[in-house]
Predict the 3D structure of the following.
Amino acid sequence: MLLAIILLAQFIFHQELQPLPHLEITEADIISVLAEYDVVHENGQLFCQQFYGATNFSTKTIALCAKNDSSQQQQTLLHEVVHVLYWRKGIDTGGPYDAAVDAKSKELFQRYFGIPKTATVEAVKDTIPVNATPPTQETAPQN
């Protein structure tokens, strides 16, 4: 019996993972998820050590680690929204699909918050003042 369980486990874990179907995500899709789900910020050390974020489909809650910077929270929120959008289509994206969900959320983050892929150093260099100097700290008065 134990041998049968081991063989079954090897069979299951060696199955080729099917790619997630393409999902075109619009601003309206993102807004609909945010209107349906509560977004909460978790401060707990245990939560933040284990997760950037998590979605509870039954309570319709998305939890984000509040200790991360806003950029990380935005990307994590998009990641969790992607999980919800696949869930709505009956596709469970947990476990081995998390990397594909992460890739999709990074694509969305780039679309909404990143520098356009067509931008180059040459294209943005003129936005930096020529005589710009880095800020310096005031030195304390000497006695």
